[in-house]
Amino acid sequence: MSKAGLAQFQQVFIEESLEGLDTMESSLLALDNGGDGELVHTIFRAAHSIKGGAATFGFPEMSSFTHEAESLLDEVRSGKREIDGAIIELLLRTVDCLRNMFARAQAGEPLNDAVAEGLRNELAAMMGRGAPAAGVQARRNVDQADAWTVRFRPHAGMLAGGNEPLRLIRELAGIGELTVTPELDRIPEFAKLDPTECHLGWTIELKGPAKRADIAGVFDWVEDECDLAIEAKHIVAEVAAPVAAPASPAAPVANVADAGAARAQREASAESSSVRVSIDKIDGLINLVGELVITQSMLDTFREGDIDAARMAMLEHGLAQLARHTRELQESVMGIRMLPIASVFNRFPRMVRDISQKLGKQVKLELVGEQTELDKTVLEKIGDPMVHLVRNAIDHGLEMPDKRRASGKGDTGTLTLSASHRGGNIVVEVSDDGAGLNREAIVAKALQRGLIASGEGMSDEAVADLIFQPGFSTAAVTTDLSGRGVGMDVVRRNVSDLGGTVTIRSTQGKGSVFTITLPLTLAIIDGLTAAVGEERYIVPLVSIVESVQLKADAVRTVAGGGELFRFRNEYLPVIRLHDVFGCETSIRSIDEGLMVVVEGEGARVGLFVDGLIGQQQAVVKSLEANYRRVQGISGATILADGSVALIVDIAGLVRLQSRRKAA
Amino acid sequence: MGSKTNPQRKTGEARVIALPADFRLADLADVKAGLLQALEAPSVELDGAGVERVDTAALQLLLAFRRAASAQGLPASWVGVSETMRDAAGVLGLTQALELPATMPA
Asked: What's the CATH number for B13-91?
């Protein structure tokens, strides 16, 4: 197969394997919470597919690594071993390690590292330890020995598959000294022999210290094409002694950070360029296109003949149908990009488990509305802000069990993630029944930082809003989870980059609710079309507060050249769009044009335009992809008359404005 | 070939089978046909001196052939064995079964 061809399949393999790992992880977590035995089979199957695929697609290290985990799972599956917390912990770390391996595979880096090697040994040690039939079983499963017996019987088709025992045995010879005894009794009569089939077998005695994994690694590629038995003859004393459960209690804890790193890597590569679409959606699309074709051919009949009143009515009916089908088609096509939020939610059970274990808190995670669909791009970007919120909720929000008892709550805190559709928006909430925001601490911190002059008379919302200020953290101790003061401001910025908002509702002693509101899709926005000279600009409707016509004297020029106007008891800066974007216009006087009050980045400004033309839905086209990035513009769209209108990026304009002010 | 008796058997001459340079799975059908014919000769000499590449399937074929020959009481001897072949047979533990001569005159 060509290299490019193999690479393409590798990509598919990696994507499928990552899904398999997700399945393994969620099943392991379910097992941890007392799920049924069927889950073990699910986990085993996922591991088995990854192992097989890895061998096929040229990742022998990954294959032999997974093999260890699979062997362990096999013992559990066949009832030889009871699954317990230690095994689940080990397998979860195996999942993380494999994710890392896939990330490295994609980056073209070597797959094995110290972590993988360590885990492999732990897995093997787990296998070697305390298996039921202590004598024989332990001997067979021991990981390291001075001498091994390898029984290797290729299936008839192995040679034709291009796998050569010569090569395998030579490779074995690299591990230790071999004594090779062939088995010749299965060779058929010469006349009947198909020379392409293999009827030989070997018993190979291997001398010299070797690990089971190294020997098994030689046969990775042919595992399904031969009968293979590897047995230890002499056991290295110290390893054979039953190995105690995971080295020290510190090990799993230290691993939380690793898990985080693994996840970060995974997230980095999460913005994949393909999307899986359900057959139902495709069928729906085909159906709609069919309708469209019928309507089109119906309209086609109007090419010929005069149009009288009756035919006119039919024509109008046809056009109405065309409009409806086009709209439905548009909605369906947009629907292709819509995916359930479950893929984001699913990463949290593991994270919550790891963090709560580390902090010694008891947390119950509830997921609501996992099937809520939203745009793939939004989906991929909402993960990070949610991770921040969930970490914060466990670290700062939920209290330790004793403190919870003292305040009359149950030991176990509840963290709820929910998603729902509200109008054209999706609302994601992260709520906890913890301590809630500490108003005094926030006010004190804000005073100390000079963010506010006094906490007197501030509403709870205003106080809560303070935590979105850059560098704001009230956590007494900076933990490695949260409290570094980078967090909430990043959350707010990430969300506003997606055209959404974050708000907090918090009751001291009862808990907090963080609400993220996001547009369903980034591909279509509702906007007002504004005229500036000959140009048309689209102002996103979500940002618009109000538009007002001002008198010329309502605007004051302040020192430094900025302009301000009074709007409902506050002074707002004026941004003249014709100035910012350099358009020729005859309308420069404030009373001739219109002031559109908009909100972005938590600030309000007035956009001065010639006038507003109307409201419309705009299909967003990337300006960056077609031209280059322009400050203050988030994209472009095509108007009904075929001309191009630019879409104003309110947040960008506000940033631009404050930078000017600073300059 | 077929049912016709091989003339060489009558003349009592040994049949020499020169094994191909690329003595591997893909070309074994031809070699097998030659060996099948050779079973009808009064004696066979195998010449593996020219073998540059060899695989398990090829050695297995020779094993089966030598078995068939000895079952018929047909003398089969080696007139040449290349290093490659000797090495491969050694790795697979087949040196003895193939009755490879300990050393061959150069």
From this structure: 3.30.750.24
